[in-house]
Specification:
By secondary structure, this protein is of the alpha/beta class. The chain is 39% helix and 22% strand. The strands form 4 sheets. It has a 9-stranded mixed beta sheet with strand order 9-10-8-7-6-5-4-1-11, with helices on both faces. The structure holds iron/sulfur cluster (SF4).
Length: 396
């Protein structure tokens, strides 16, 4: 069934005060196969449809012509998925070129492409680099063939090593590696080994996520049947502690709950999300946040393409978020950053501050030692970081 597109007058969206330059996100919802833990909006296919790229390109041209976009200079472009590099280097470079020609971008814009190791080679990466892509984010997840098989990943350890080497040869000087810990059958020693192998490549950025079991995934079904054995809670905590210690020693500073970077290499696109900044998301299932308007596109690629081909907007939902909801969202997202959030910024944007809005709840969290509150800043403490989800749940 093709969902009805919402009708919105985008010309009425006005800039929120104190708004930072927005980011642009393009979603490629295809992967070679599905990983056992994945709940992202992605679909297995061997050869991705040309019609999807054509529809996405048409959407890029449409949105670039809208007043909200014409009035802004974008600071970042992020092509994510799924596996964007399931399309060839020249297809993706063509998308980047179209974006750079259609929207106003800052001269020093950060341009990231996400990739999986078995979908890249030096030649394709060189095309991307020459096309203006200046940051590569590789989904490695584990430096162990045994663990990669367990996760249902479609690549090997050798392919991960080769992809990183190829990226360096292609000229990428800003590489992120995504890694996961708390995996079935993973010990702290095995995690330490994965981290050491990652660090041997001297990445500028590492994202280290603890495995979470998402509903309706193969892993969730195995957990329900009692057939998946995960590390105990204290072992997972030990892995998290090991991560902070080893990465700090290696000069990678933790700046968000799961993200670490060398100085000057923090992911600007994601920082904008955590600061609850404005962004335009295009592609199946992509979400935009346009000065208080939340707009999402239809989730599945086929109806997305059909609607665009019929000349309709492929929208699923559009809503205007109340000010208090946006304020709470800014607090919850902002606390993910280790620097926390500035009251002056919140006051400027919403006319509200956390102490005034949350009152007793915040006092309790402070007394429990989970948050630090100063004159102009709120952040999670060392004790609050490991239980961030519980703390944030009280502020939603
Ligand atoms: S590669 Fe990423 S998006 Fe694709 S199935 Fe695996 S986890 Fe999901």
């Amino acid at each position: 069934m093709v969902p009805k597109p919402a009708i919105i007058d985008f010309t009425v969206i006005t800039p929120a005060s104190g708004e930072e330059p927005p980011g642009l996100y393009l979603h490629i919802p295809f992967c070679k196969s599905r990983c056992a833990y994945c709940s992202f909006n992605s679909y297995a296919c061997q050869s991705p449809p040309a019609a999807y790229l054509a529809a996405l390109s048409r959407q890029i041209r449409y949105w670039a012509g809208q007043q909200w976009c014409r009035e802004r200079t974008f600071a970042t472009l992020f092509i994510g998925g799924g596996t964007p590099t399931i399309y060839g280097g020249s297809d993706l470079a063509g998308l980047v070129r179209l974006c750079l020609e259609s929207f106003n971008f800052a001269a020093e814009a950060e341009i990231t492409v996400e990739a999986n190791p078995n979908t890249v080679n030096e030649q394709g990466l060189t095309v991307l680099r020459r096309g203006g892509v200046n940051r590569l984010s590789l989904g490695v997840q584990a430096f162990s063939d045994r663990l990669l098989v367990g996760l249902g990943r479609s690549h090997t350890l050798a392919e991960a090593d080769a992809a990183i080497t190829a990226a360096r040869r292609a000229g990428f000087a800003n590489i992120n590696l995504d890694l996961m810990y708390g995996l079935p059958g993973q010990s702290s020693a095995a995690w330490q080994d994965s981290l050491a192998q990652a660090l041997a490549h001297a990445p500028e950025h590492l994202a280290c996520y603890e495995l979470t079991i998402e509903e309706e995934t193969p892993f969730a079904r195995l957990v329900d049947k009692g057939e998946l054995s995960l590390p105990a809670e204290d072992e997972a905590l030990a892995m998290a502690d090991l991560t902070h210690a080893l990465l700090a020693q290696a000069g990678l500073q933790r700046y968000e709950i799961s993200n670490y970077a060398r100085p000057g290499f923090q992911c600007r696109h994601n920082l904008n999300y955590w600061r609850n900044g404005a962004y335009l998301g295009l592609g199946a299932g992509a979400v935009s946040c346009l000065s208080g308007f939340r707009v999402s596109m239809v989730r599945e690629p086929e109806p997305f393409v059909e609607l665009v081909q019929r000349g309709e907007l492929p929208l699923d939902e559009a809503e205007c978020l109340p000010l208090a909801a946006r304020f709470r969202e800014s607090v919850v997202m902002g606390l993910r950053m280790l620097d926390g959030i500035s009251f002056a910024r919140l006051q400027r944007q919403f006319g509200l501050t956390p102490p005034g809005y949350y009152g007793k709840i915040l006092e309790e969290l402070h007394q429990q030692g989970l948050v630090a509150v100063s004159q102009d800043n709120l952040r999670l403490t060392k004790a609050g970081l490991p239980v961030a989800n519980q703390v944030l749940a009280r502020l939603v």
